[in-house]
Amino acid sequence: VSFDQLDGYIWFDGEIIPWNEAKVHVLNHGLHYASAVFEGERAYDGEIFKLTEHTQRLHESARILGFTIPYSVEEIDEACRQLLAKQGMKDVYVRPIAWRGSESMGVSAQNNRVHLAIAIWEWPSYFDPEQKLKGIRLDIAEYRRPDPRTAPSKSKAAGLYMICTLSKHAAEAKGYADAMMLDWRGQVAEATGANIFFVKGDKLLTPTPDCFLNGITRQTIIEIANRRGIKVEERAIMPEELEGFDESFICGTAAEVTPVAEIGPYTFTPGEMTRALMDAYAAEVRPSLRAAAE
Ligand code: PMP
Questions:
Q1: Does 156 participate in catalysis according to the annotation?
Q2: What is the atom index within ligand 1 of the atom nearest the CA of 57?
Q3: Residue 290 — pLDDT band, cuts 50, 70, 90?
Q4: Is the CB–ligand 1 distance for residue 252 below 6 Å?
Q5: Core-most of 61, 146, 229, 242, by most CB within 10 Å?
């Protein structure tokens, strides 16, 4: 079923309305000029993991694009919770999106109304579960993450996903599950919708997030590693270094922790560290398991 035909409700500019009534006009600035920012969250056992962090990032993404969402962080948190309760679902994906409306249709849109909508749907596993167990295969993308002087790379801006969709489609056309993108300097950056980690011996390595999203999942993995006394090195990583790494995984709200078996010519064997972090993350996000672990 197409996403515009699902059942349920959508929170739209302050009201909860039937799913099929949540429509916008074709002439809106968000569609034509990519003046849109969004979030991706997951609820586990009916509780949205790190909800306020996500809502704050949504506000910050909009601020970077020069617009203000007309609802406070508290109001948006509450809207997400209300919608979740109304939909009556426990384990779901949550997608808030803010965009500039239709009042003017040129590059300048200073006075266009800013809209906000929130949708919730079931998104069980971002990658094919069978592939996910063995580790997924990543292509190395041709497009690169842009220099922060070229694009607002800290914003979860819809426009930046053009590069991700191009890279993911090119990877899929070659039979890969996803792509690893380099940044404008040629350093390892991230996957098309997730951050990347490597394991070398007993330590974790991950690129410094200076031109891509410092994912909330990435930060959670670093917190878990710190608590367990696992050393984490955040630094520039050149693709040639992948030859010497033992394991790799990507992580993000949708992807959770997904082991990687191949990146271009480099191969990895998902091992103990990746498995331990997959389990620890699965426990961290679920209120009942988190309580049990504490
Ligand atoms: N990078 C990109 C390009 C993403 O789309 C995502 C998913 N939002 C991430 C990283 C990971 O972010 P998070 O862990 O906050 O979901």
A1: yes
A2: 15
A3: confident
A4: yes
A5: 61
Beta strands in the chain (DSSP E): 9-12, 15-18, 36-38, 41-44, 47-48, 92-100, 114-121, 136-140, 178-182, 188-191, 195-200, 203-206, 231-234, 247-252, 256-263, 266-267
Would strands 256-263 and 136-140 be described as parallel, antiparallel, or unpaired? Answer: parallel
Q: Does the CB atom of residue 194 touch ligand 1 within 6 A?
A: yes
Which pLDDT tens digit goes with each residue over 63-87? 999 999 999 999 999 999 999 999 9
Looking at domain 129-293, its CATH superfamily turns out to be D-amino Acid Aminotransferase, subunit A, domain 2 (3.20.10.10)
| 30 contacts 106 by C-beta, under 8 angstroms | no
The number of residues in the chain equals 294
Query: Tell me, which fold does domain 3-121 have in CATH?
Result: D-amino Acid Aminotransferase; Chain A, domain 1 (3.30.470)
Indicate whether residue 54 lines ligand 1 (CB < 6 A): no
| ipTM tops the 0.90 cut | yes
Best residue for ligand 1 mutational test, from 212, 253, 284 (most atoms within 8 Å of Cβ): 253
Name the nearest CA neighbour of 34 among 76, 66, 6, 60: 66
Q: What residue segments make up the domains of the chain, in order of their start?
A: 3-121, 129-293
Which amino acid would we find at residue 8?
G
Q: Determine how many CB atoms are found less than 10 A away from the CB of residue 188.
A: 22
Residues 192-245: pLDDT tens digits?
Answer: 999 999 999 999 999 999 999 999 999 999 999 999 999 999 999 999 999 999
Contact 268, 135 (CB under 8 A): yes
Residue pointed to by tokens 């790379």: 153
Residue 126 binned pLDDT confidence (cut-offs 50, 70, 90): confident
